[in-house]
């Protein structure tokens, strides 16, 4: 077996650490971006992203919708919610703003009578939490 000179070995090791460092730096940047998205969504809606995620799971929204970040989310009855934050409308009818989204989440049958989304008895606070989560779904996830 051929022995690698010490200086060459050191260069190889340092190059490897550079790659690891770059990967680590990328991961930190991703976490910071996610944190900024969550802070923005929470400020916009008055809800809490983490509670919204739990509410989406508890309410089984993924039974009808595909929702990025929600495990086993493959619903096909309602539209995919990927990229929701960049959409212009909610339910194809309402301007995509926090108050309209909360209204839709709470009272979809009042907004569009006869549509496939049932009224789920969701309160204001829970609807704001769900809205906060949805506003973290950027177009990159589509």
UniProtKB/TrEMBL annotation:
InterPro entries: Cyt_c-like_dom, Cyt_c-like_dom_sf
Pfam families: Cytochrome_CBB3
Signal sequence range: none
Domain of life: Bacteria
Record flagged with keyword Signal: no
Cytochrome c domain residues: 47-138
Keywords: Heme, Iron, Metal-binding
Protein name: C-type cytochrome
């Amino acid at each position: 077996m051929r022995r690698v000179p010490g200086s060459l070995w050191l260069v190889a090791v340092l190059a490897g650490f550079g790659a690891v460092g770059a990967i680590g730096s990328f991961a930190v940047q991703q976490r910071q971006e996610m944190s900024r998205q969550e802070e923005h969504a929470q400020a916009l809606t008055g809800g809490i992203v983490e509670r919204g995620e739990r509410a989406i799971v508890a309410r089984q929204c993924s039974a009808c919708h595909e929702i990025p970040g929600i495990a086993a989310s493959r619903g096909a009855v309602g539209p995919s919610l990927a990229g929701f934050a960049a959409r212009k409308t909610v339910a194809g009818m309402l301007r995509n703003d926090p108050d309209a989204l909360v209204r839709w989440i709470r009272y979809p049958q009042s907004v569009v009578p006869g549509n496939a989304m049932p009224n789920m008895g969701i309160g204001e606070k829970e609807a704001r939490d769900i809205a906060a989560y949805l506003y973290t779904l950027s177009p990159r996830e589509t």
